Amino acid sequence: MPEEIIRTLSADGVRYGYRVLPYDRSGGAVPRTEPTLILGGALQGMFGWPQMDDHLGPATDVVTADLPGMGGADPLPPGPSADLLRRAVLGIADDLGAPRLNVFGFSYGTAIAFGFAQHHPERVARLALGGVPVHIDTAQVACWERARRQLAAGDREGFAATAADALMCLDPERPVYRRELARRYVRRSFLHALTHSPHAADSLHRALADRPDFTGGLTGVPALVFAGEHDTVTSPARQREFAATIEGSRFLTVGESDHWVVLERAEEVASLVTGFFTGREPVAPTARATGAVVLPRQAAAPAGRT
Questions:
Q1: Worst-scoring range by mean pLDDT, 48-57, 137-146, 165-174, 214-223?
Q2: Domain co-membership, 20 together with 113
Q3: Both 114 and 234 in a single domain?
Q4: What is the pTM of this model?
């Protein structure tokens, strides 16, 4: 398999980078789909998606990124960041020389992916969105405010515990596969980022304070939206309402998982997204999950910025 390539770009003087795991074109082999860009949560950078490399690598070029404010990239400048992040994604597409990309956004990355598809639908072949934080209730807001205070006070361990728990379903009556393993991993990831990234704290502040805009709908881009059946950040019902604003989208829930479905059901999610991007009809990974449903666009669907 070809070695990965790492490129550095800039947008408005803000340095950022991306990584490509090229498809093996030896012997005249041709990729089965367009290059696929993966955009993760606030602290998920370019090296955090090995399961996607394994599943997508045999089908196409796999692209991951440290966008502005993430990983080894420069911090975000003050003020709104959505436009800068969209232009950073466009810069990756242009630098790749790719007329169109498949785009997979998870959690915080869904807002970037969705916004890019809205503004540049001609550059998106297919769009997959998982764990879309389209609605944050008052209990979640209070929890995140507590986490922000802990971070501001220098209590990194307290912040990591509070933030990890806020993103997970801890109800023992609701089964979540690998719950404790995922919980420990998320806590360690937060602590590692805060220790090793000079602007991780600022990035987290921005991610916790921002209210991403999911209004406006989308047409002309094949889309898949999926949620963990016990997602407590935004319920599957709310995420389905959002999916209904995307014309012809598919929506499904993944059983025995919560917001961190990409960790708890990593292999199943990687297979699901790879199948969608390579033309297979999406099928829920377990019998407990709700299968894919084609959703007509609802012009006044109650989804958006909350």
A1: 137-146
A2: yes
A3: yes
A4: 0.90
